[in-house]
Design brief:
four-stranded antiparallel sheet; mainly beta; seven-stranded mixed sheet; 0% helix
Length: 124
């Protein structure tokens, strides 16, 4: 049984930082491209960042480039999202997801497994 469990987030002031973690179990983690998506109230889920199985390639949506950093530790089956210079528009539920390289890194349809999500609220 595959499980992705996010942690971190919470309430952060604008300009602040926080780190999300996603612990994976039940899958060969090192074979999966891992991604982070987010969904704000009333909006569709959107791609945030992704990282290749080895960690050598990372991808970001334009709005978070230079502020967010995705990383992974295959020994711990964990992927991280370091979020800096947070803005109120970053407020959303953040989801981690696993993609067995069967589609584009920025398409939610390409991801096989999803976590339950963790709330990040950025106050102005």
């Amino acid at each position: 049984q595959v499980q992705l469990v996010e942690s971190g987030g919470g309430l952060v002031q604008a300009g602040g930082s926080t780190r999300l973690s996603c612990a994976a179990s039940g899958l060969t983690f090192s074979r999966y491209l891992m991604g982070w998506f987010r969904q704000a109230p009333g909006k569709e889920r959107e791609f945030v960042a992704a990282i290749s199985w080895s960690g050598s390639n990372t991808y970001y949506t334009n709005s978070v480039k230079g502020r967010f950093a995705i990383s992974r530790d295959n020994a711990k089956n964990t992927v991280y999202l370091q979020m800096n210079s947070l803005k109120p528009e970053d407020t959303a539920v953040y989801y981690c997801a696993g993609n067995n390289y069967r589609g584009s890194y920025d398409s939610s349809n390409a991801y096989d497994y999803w976590g339950q999500g963790t709330q990040v609220t950025v106050s102005s």
